[in-house]
Amino acid sequence: MRPGESDVLILVDVQNDFCPGGALAVPEGDAVVPVVNRLAERFAHCVLTQDWHPPGHQSFASAHPGRKPFDEIEMPYGAQTLWPDHCVQGTPGAAFHRQLVAPRAELIMRKGFHPAIDSYSTFYENDRKTPTGLVGYLRERGFSRVFLAGLATDFCVHYSALDARRRGFAVVVIEDACRAIDLQGSLAEAWRAMSVAGVERLASAAIA
Questions:
Q1: Cis amide bond preceding 152, omega within 30
Q2: What is the DSSP string of 78-134?
Q3: Residues 44, 6: contact at Cβ < 8 Å?
Q4: Backbone phi and psi for residue 6, each to the nearest 5 degrees, phi listed first
């Protein structure tokens, strides 16, 4: 498969806090870096997304006395997993991994900056209504197919894939260019939901 002018590679949250040693490390999260670097060379168009939380974000366990990371609470928009403080605006943990190389990236889309709403998807906040603006950007640029890679498969990649399908884009998740957190079976459930939605699953080697 050779990417065309209507294809865009979206590299999701390849940030220090999601890599080993980070505040919310995805197991082997840094293993995606050389894979996504190779992919970035193969696509003419690339978007980077960046988790970008203000201090005291309501998705942080530290914002809820008596709660601990990975507890679940109800927010006005539904169930919310509480996380360790991570990707706080302007901190080293929020920076892209130092070995990430994507010189053709044409946009950095920041998400999760609304203090009271978490954001997994690169397209919508977790209330599923507040847009990031990425849909409009992609449509104005004439992109019709989205390739997703990055962190984490079962959260930000998963939710991005479902929202992209919901808004009419063809979607491909590049499996070996992602890594998962896998909380209580979340990875298997993510792949099931993506399959039902019509998301294609592909290996990076298949992209010329």
A1: yes
A2: EEEE-B-S-SBTTSGGGSBPTT---TTEEEEEEE--STT----SSSB-TTS-SB-SH
A3: no
A4: -95, 5
Question: pTM of the full predicted structure?
Answer: 0.96
Spatial distance between the Cα atoms of 168 and 201, rounded to a whole number of angstroms? 17
Cα-based torsion angle of the residue sequence 16, 169, 128, 79 in order, rounded to the nearest 10 degrees:
-60
- Strand pairing partners for 179? 151
Q: Cβ distance 13 to 150 under 8 Å? A: yes
Q: What is the CB-side half-sphere exposure of residue 87 using CA atoms within 13 A? A: 26
CB 180 within 8 A of CB 186: yes
Annotated active-site positions, please?
Answer: 13, 111, 156
Q: Provide Rg for the chain, Cα atoms.
A: 16
**Residues 50 and 109: beta-carbon distance below 8 Å:** yes
Give the three-state DSSP class for 48: strand
pLDDT digits 0-9 by tens, 119-170: 999 999 999 999 999 999 999 999 999 999 999 999 999 999 999 999 999 9
Q: How far is CA 89 from CA 82, 102, 106, 112, in A?
A: 18, 21, 21, 10
How many other C-beta atoms are found inside a 10 Å radius of the C-beta of residue 64? 14
The residue ranges of the chain whose pLDDT is under 70 are none
